[in-house]
């Protein structure tokens, strides 16, 4: 038989685990409903129906036609199931491997361990306790019977969470709102515990597990299984950008830069700008340098702005830093703390900010002359003019930040193209806030607050003019700059800049918003659109965490070294199907015997497995002596059973 072709086929014929070729020694049970009786059922298919368990009970947990004409055997429901025997030699628990008629193998030490009572529900405050049941469970309904006795906890598979039937919910007086996945209880996830908690504490059973809402999961079956895998991952451009940021955060420290090893609990300092040569004094008489550094206590990367040779005269100068640390705004680089230090062999002021990897200043991005480029037979302009749309975006973001600062009774005091950072697509943040408040501390600053805020507005207008003219000194040649502005930009923009830079009675930043009215709506639209784009990208990654959990289960189950000499572990029962499925997913070969490395196929199979699709596939053994037709639902059940066998073994005290 052509292994590849057989394995790749997706038969539509409805059947449960159908054996196509029976191996001589390890025969498979044709259907789950015929567990434990495969050989006999084959030879006498019309055997006494009353002796055969009803398939509906096995698959659905109950039979609607019980007592209404169904001729098959229905086990009594009220009967309390006995704890199963886990003796590997025992033949008394055939339900463990319903798919394959083979002796049951369970890992050593997996004897039943009572980990406390399984979760019970009290109905109407009465004493009746009913174990939760999962409707529509997979072929191993018998396994479910077992599992209702065991701890049903599976740290990996949330999908095994028991689902409460509506009538039970009624009895419990639990409103649907309690099951609303969107309304998670505060400080907890849907289980009331974090996912990691459940991983590390498999004994936690004293909570009621909530049903997983499958409607939250995207369609696992792409229209074309061979389609591009792009829909499962964030876009290349986003991934590349985030990857670069991550590389910057974790980049190794350049040696020999003469920076101290530790500055007040910050280590791995690395300058973000040249520290030698000719340098501009950005704060009056002071030189400043920005370093990337890691804080020892939390391991997070921060930006440290060091102002060299600063001598603190009054401790009170740090008071304004407290006010700044309280300001959190999307267009302001957040301040964490400030201190003075002698670690740099001088007396330096250090202000600690959030670090925004790969941020560049507006000056570097738009104004600094770029080297000439020669393209399409022409010399290209050094800096492309900034589109008006982008100028409005910058203007609104800055105005918003300034308003927040002014409303907090502070002034920014450095609004300059070298102190505004571009941290994402058209996303800007004002850096260096608070530095001037310490450097030029005045005990009665409030007396000058209005004046400082007016200066903020003037600096804001000058910055916008510089950006429109792409010249830092544009304000110095105001008339010429305004002419340039009028040629390239709308009168609305001209008016706003004129409002900001013209002298006159005191202005308020709030007045500006009256002038820009509808532009705000356009900006809001863009922000929301951007949010949608990012959310969509996140959606693409959503399922991947679940797939990793599935792969971890495969890793745990397959090729266990301690069962190397125990062929029944991988050659029988559920594990055999899992092994064949693993081969089907990962180890296919083409007609020339070359490995088929098709990520789409892997993702499609795993997603179908994850949701327990009814679709059937044909699994072929490596020796091509046997093949099975099973549904993903059944394979999922096998994995679930094999994994819970393992967890029971590993949790032995
Ligand atoms: N919070 C921050 N996160 C990430 N990078 C930052 C941060 N603050 C500043 N930087 C980066 O540090 C570098 C130096 O910043 P700085 O504000 O000193 O700009 P500059 O252009 O060197 O100005 P000046 O000439 O006034 O020193 C810039 O490349 C800037 O992108």
Automatic annotation (TrEMBL):
Residues 557-653 are annotated as: Knob domain. Residues 48-77 form the C3H1-type domain. Its main location: cytoplasm. Pfam families: Pan3_CK, zf-CCCH_PAN3. One of its GO terms (biological process) is nuclear-transcribed mRNA poly(A) tail shortening. ATP binds at residues 305, 354-361, 418-419. It is found in: Cytoplasm. GO terms for cellular component: P-body; PAN complex. GO terms for molecular function: ATP binding; poly(A) binding; protein kinase activity; zinc ion binding. Residues 24-43, 85-94 have a biased composition (Polar residues). Residues 518-556 form a coiled coil. Residues 22-49, 75-94 are annotated as: Disordered. Homodimer. Forms a heterotrimer with a catalytic subunit PAN2 to form the poly(A)-nuclease (PAN) deadenylation complex. Interacts (via PAM-2 motif) with poly(A)-binding protein PAB1 (via PABC domain), conferring substrate specificity of the enzyme complex. HAMAP family: PAN3 (MF_03181). Regulatory subunit of the poly(A)-nuclease (PAN) deadenylation complex, one of two cytoplasmic mRNA deadenylases involved in mRNA turnover. PAN specifically shortens poly(A) tails of RNA and the activity is stimulated by poly(A)-binding protein PAB1. PAN deadenylation is followed by rapid degradation of the shortened mRNA tails by the CCR4-NOT complex. Deadenylated mRNAs are then degraded by two alternative mechanisms, namely exosome-mediated 3'-5' exonucleolytic degradation, or deadenlyation-dependent mRNA decaping and subsequent 5'-3' exonucleolytic degradation by XRN1. Contains a pseudokinase domain. The protein kinase domain is predicted to be catalytically inactive because some of the residues important for catalytic activity are substituted and it lacks the equivalent of the binding site for a peptide substrate. However, it has retained an ATP-binding site and ATP-binding is required for mRNA degradation, stimulating the activity of the PAN2 nuclease in vitro. This is PAN2-PAN3 deadenylation complex subunit PAN3. The lineage of its organism: Eukaryota, Fungi, Dikarya, Basidiomycota, Agaricomycotina.
